[in-house]
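Predict structure. Chain length: 132.
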Amino acid sequence: MNDTALRHFLDDYCATFRPGNIAAIARRYHLPVTMIVGEQISTVNSEQRIVDMLEAIMRSLVARGFDHSHVDDCYIHPLTSNSALISASFSRLKTDGTVLEQLGATYTVVNSDGGYRIAVLVAHDVGHVIKN
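Prediction complete.
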């Protein structure tokens, strides 16, 4: 696994996570994908279900002034020849550039179908980013 390519994947994913790009975001997930957000654990087997989930999240964010996200810190941990753990912190920014919120997420990423895809997403606090 190439750390530079994985960092590029995360930066691209983050840049894509903005209003109007839900279908493009959904294509970055490997099916089935497991998503753990708070106490909710979901295994999603269809791209349409991912779109539906992300649209609900995006509507909530936009209602609070969300415009785009930025990767603050990123730590890459290779697992196998075609998988890695990416743990990162993000800032979600408002249209005026101020910080709406900061969060952390850890992804299990696989290289499949000619590109990286997220197989597992765990959302968490910034303080739980896996550094070592």
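Summary: The CA atoms of residues 31 and 45 lie 6 Å apart.
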